[in-house]
Design goal:
Elements (H helix, E strand, L loop, with lengths): L1 H16 L19 H5 L29 E8 L5 E11 L4 E11 L3 E4 L5 E5 L2 E13 L3 E14 L2 E16 L4 E15 L12 E9 L5 E7 L12 H6 L9 H6 L2 E9 L3 E8 H7 L11 E8 L3 E10 L2 E11 L6
Antiparallel strand pairs: 1-2, 1-16, 2-3, 3-6, 4-5, 6-7, 7-8, 8-9, 9-10, 10-11, 11-12, 12-13, 13-14, 14-15, 15-16
């Protein structure tokens, strides 16, 4: 327990050191995008969901388990505005050190864009891309505790503007299988740019402190999750006063309740005979942001998903609403050695 107390102390210190980072003022925000369909269906933010899905460990390394040995998660997201997202995560269990290790990549392809100057003169085309590559590990402490870490390399390439950076995540996980209860705490994106977009201008990474809980009911095929993000700062709402005045926007009501609930992502999963899952998620901050400027959609913030869990392959689908647009993400989970999951 002394080791866990020390790790908790480090996490709390990290929260104080990086609390100044605010959303909208950071680089590499693509690292916050969900890499797998189950995570997207859960609302896009979840670090505690009880599942045998190695893709979920991409967001919390402490979720890695020995049962994920040689498991492979692949995902494709046909995102809005023609953006394509590809992801891959695979893991191994090192028996000698009793440590779980995984590698993964999340890649974003924005298509071919026209390159112009400020006056609109066309200079040709370019192909912007982003990706984050990760090395993850986890280790068990006693019967219920897991600790994990992630080393990540991030890269962006937008025509002549190129940037790269490194960061680490530290995660804790508590799992009580008898009660169907799991809790997670993750400090994300502690790091720095290695190469900046513009010479001499170094920008901050999207630091985030997240905490989540998942509870599976004992006598019903349901499990519920509640996740809180950006715990390092209370007010996460973006407020451009000049833009609000120009467009008569009054939707950005930054009162106490709004500031509180926009930290939360809630979800519920229906698990049918361990073979079919149906997921509904709700992201409060996403709904608040998308409902700005009189463009509200009653389904903004909601995500939906379904999964069919065969013995040797798990197939999952997720979708969500962005005003009048939707994304479609599919992921496959299987063991590349050929064994069942």
């Amino acid at each position: 327990m002394k080791q866990l107390q020390f790790l908790l102390f480090l996490l709390l210190c990290s929260m104080g050191l990086f609390a100044q980072t605010l959303g909208g003022n950071t680089v590499y925000n693509f690292v916050t995008q969900p890499n797998t369909a189950q995570l997207s269906a859960l609302g896009g933010v979840n670090i505690s969901n009880i599942s045998n899905d190695v893709g979920m460990a991409f967001q919390n390394p402490a979720l890695l388990r020995p049962a994920m040995q040689q498991q492979l998660n692949t995902a494709f997201n046909n995102f809005i505005a023609g953006i394509k997202n590809y992801s891959l995560t695979t893991a191994w269990y090192l028996n000698q050190s009793k440590t779980n290790v995984a590698i993964g990549i999340n890649y974003f392809d924005y298509g071919i864009l026209t390159q112009t100057d400020a006056a609109g003169n066309v200079f040709g085309t370019f192909k912007p891309v982003d990706y984050v590559a990760q090395l993850l590990f986890s280790h068990a402490y006693h019967n219920n505790w897991w600790v994990g870490g992630t080393f990540k390399f991030m890269n962006s390439h937008y025509a002549q503007y190129k940037s790269s950076g490194i960061a680490i995540d530290i995660g804790l996980n508590y799992y009580d299988s008898a009660r169907g209860f799991q809790a997670g705490l993750v400090v994300k994106n502690m790091g720095s740019q290695l190469k900046t977009y513009t010479h001499g201008i170094r920008e901050e990474l999207p630091f985030d402190v997240q905490m989540g809980f998942t509870k599976r009911l004992e006598k019903a095929p349901l499990q519920f999750s509640l996740t809180a993000h950006h715990l390092q700062t209370f007010n996460t709402l973006y407020n451009d006063t000049a833009f609000n005045a120009a467009y008569s926007n009054t939707s950005n009501n930054a009162n106490f309740i709004n500031q509180l609930v926009t930290h939360l992502v809630a979800s519920v999963q229906l698990l049918i005979d361990h073979k079919v899952e149906v997921t509904v998620g709700y992201n409060f901050l996403r709904r608040h942001d998308l409902n700005a400027y009189a463009t509200a959609n009653g389904l903004n913030g909601f995500t939906l998903g379904a999964g069919v869990l065969f013995k040797k392959i798990h197939i999952r689908y997720a979708t969500g609403f962005y005003q009048q647009n939707m994304f479609h993400q599919v992921s496959l989970n299987f063991n590349w050695k050929g064994d069942g999951l």
